[in-house]
Known about the structure:
Number of strands: 11
Structural class: alpha/beta
Order of helices and strands: EEEHEHEHEEHEEHEHHEHHHH
Oligomer: single chain
Largest sheet: 9 strands, mixed
Strand content: 15-25%
Shape: globular
Radius of gyration: 20 Å
Amino acid sequence: MFVAFQWSSKCCEITVRLREQQMKFSIVTASFNSSRYIDEAVRSALSQREDVDEFEHIIADADSTDGTLEALDQHSHLLVDSRPDLGIYDGMNRAISMATGDIVVILNSDDTLLPGALRNARMAFEACDADVVAGGFEVIPDLEGAVPKTFFSRTPPTYMSLLFGIPAINASFFRRDVFQRVGAFDLSLGLAADRGWLIRALQCGLHFENSDHLFYRYRQHSGSATLSGEQKTRRRIYQQHIEMADLLSREFPGNASLKSSLRAFSAIERMKLAHTYIEWNEPGDRSFRDYVTLSAASLAHPLSLLSGLWNWWRYRGRYSSY
Length: 322
């Protein structure tokens, strides 16, 4: 039996909680043609197996053909399910559905868990009844001698911070039943699926806690789905953000705070997307007409645009939990 003491600075009292069962961690990874990085990702998790009571690592592979499966064959502890899928979030959904642990950790095939992440997360979950524990994370360019940029969570997330900040869903560890309460990643949202899922999680009233420890390292490289910085990727993300805002506004019509945040977010994303039609004009683009249409949609709601500009400045480049 384990006794955890937690000091609460708000109410100035000590709470005691008894842990009678062991805590199992499920690491889940979606992969597709990830042979360049996936061995390092797997080893970053495996090296921490002794830090937790129980451990499993599930790989949902999308029928890779580049040697990824051969690399995975070198690790007998992995649970590998390889079949065609509909993209990274479809793979994540599949891996999460196979998880049997108490805590779910989403590890991308090109990233790594930082040393001590599982141990520190375990201690945080043992000390409180949180549904989600958010740790710090690093972003490092895939260049020799590159210095990582570090981010830490400071406050519980809000709708505005999740929309305008860096969602960093991989640096948050979740109790498995959270995915039953919130649901799966919405594949219709494309690269906005993680941000949309976190908004739904906040809407569900989950208990978020922050850790002062680093949990995760994102690798920034040209093949990254979201961190490549390529112009085409950025345009695609802006478009999917607008679609996400429209979808969630219809899904939660009674949540005035969320609807206000979504209007502000949509106004900014429309302006950013409009700018791309001028800056990144490609053959066949209807630049001027699209620019005017998107700009008019933002300017039609001046208060939302002003709110969006304030929160864009406030959260830009910051962790969603600042």
